[in-house]
Specification:
- The chain is mainly α and about 130 residues long.
- It has one domain.
- The longest helix is centred in the middle third of the chain and has 26 residues.
Length: about 130
């Protein structure tokens, strides 16, 4: 009797490549998330603007440059709006200024986050409004 070698099974088909349907953690996304988390944690906006300045000076993709400028402007809008709002709280208009500043910073951060997920440049990074 001879030992017969069992036939090898045919190779299995390779699975299709995974689609990129997940959340892309690129640099502008990280900064936007830090800005949004600052409404709960407080200090993370400062970390976000420092990262924006550092990463702006490093090599990056072309679309990211507009996000860095947009997010740096968002930080300054938030800081100035908060200072003006706190100072004018004495005459009660400060509450409205603070609410408008918070709303504007949230909208700007979310717009940057959405465009960063699409890897698209910000349309007008130097604007002061959304």
């Amino acid at each position: 009797m001879t030992d017969a070698v069992p036939p090898t099974p045919p190779p299995s088909p390779t699975p299709p490549p995974a689609t990129s349907g997940g959340f892309d953690m690129n640099r502008p996304t990280i900064i936007s998330l830090l800005y949004l988390s600052s409404f709960v944690l407080g200090i993370t906006a400062l970390i976000g603007v420092i990262l924006a300045f550092v990463w702006k000076g490093e090599p990056h993709e072309e679309w990211e440059a507009t996000h860095y400028q947009y997010l740096i402007n968002t930080f300054w809008i938030g800081l100035v709006g908060t200072i003006v709002g706190v100072v004018t709280m004495i005459v009660l208009i400060g509450f409205l200024i603070l609410m408008a500043t918070v709303a504007l910073c949230i909208v700007r951060s979310v717009l940057s986050l959405i465009n960063a997920q699409k890897r698209m440049a910000m349309p007008n990074p130097s604007t002061l409004l959304a």
